[in-house]
UniProtKB/TrEMBL annotation:
Residues 39-152 form a coiled coil. The keyword Coiled coil applies. This is Uncharacterized protein. The keyword Coiled coil applies. Keywords: Coiled coil. Residues 198-230 form the C4-type zinc ribbon domain. Residues 27-183 form the CT398-like coiled coil hairpin domain. InterPro entries: CT398_CC_hairpin, Oxidative_Scav/Glycosyltrans, Zf-RING_7. It comes from Poseidonibacter parvus. Pfam families: CT398_CC (PF24481), Zn_ribbon_9 (PF02591).
Amino acid sequence: MNKYLQDLIKLSKFDTAISMFEPKIENEKAKLATFVETAEEIKASINALYLEIDDIKSKRTKNNIHLSELKSKLEDISKKNDSVQTEKELKALQLEEEIAKEQIAFANEEINRLDTLAETKEESLKELQDKLTEEEESIKEIQVAVDNTIEEINKERNVVYQDRSELLEKFDNKILTFYEKIKRWAKDSAVVPVKKQACYGCYMKINDKTYAEVIKSEEIINCPHCGRILYKEDETEEA
C-alpha cells in the first residue's frame, strides 16, 4: 500500500477517535446530570410543600383567633341575657347566639380539616426529604464513578493525541493540506473504506477502473462521486 495512503488512514482513524472522546465525556456527565436534575426537582417540591404548610398554619392561626373572638362573643351574649327586658331583645340575643355557635362549629371543623391537611403535607415532606437524601447519596457515588471514567477517557485521549503528533512529525505537508481540505467538509469521513465496490462515505458504487486502482493501493484515489479518499480494507478488517 502507498505509504502516504497508509499515513492518511492512520491520521483519519486518530481524528475519528479524538472526535469520539468529547461525546463520551458528555455522556458520562449526562448520567450525573439526570440525578442532579431529579434532586433539584425534589428540592423544588420540598420548598413548595414548606410554603403550603406555612399557609395552612397561617390559616389555622386565623381560625383560632376567630374562634377565640366567637367564644368571647358567646360570653358577652350570656351576660346580656341577665339584663334582657323584652321578648324582642331575648329573641335577638338567641339568634345571635345560634349564629355564633354555628360559626364556632364551622371554625372547629375548619381547624380539624387544616390539622389533617397539615399532617398529610408533613408526611409528604418527610418522604421527599428521605428521597432527597437517597438521591444525594446516589449523586455522590455517581460523581466518583463519572470522575474516574472521565479521567480514563482523558488518558486515552492523551495517548491518541501523542500518537497523532508523532505521526504528523513525519507527515508530508502537501498530503496533509490535501487531507485537511477534504476534512473541512467531510469531517471524520475524509478517508473511508470501499466495501462491496461502494464508497462508505457517500455510499455510491464506484466504477470498475477506480475500484481496481483502490485495490492496488499504489496511489491515493478519490471517490469520483464525493471526493473522499478511498482505501480497501483487508479481508479480516472488512469482515
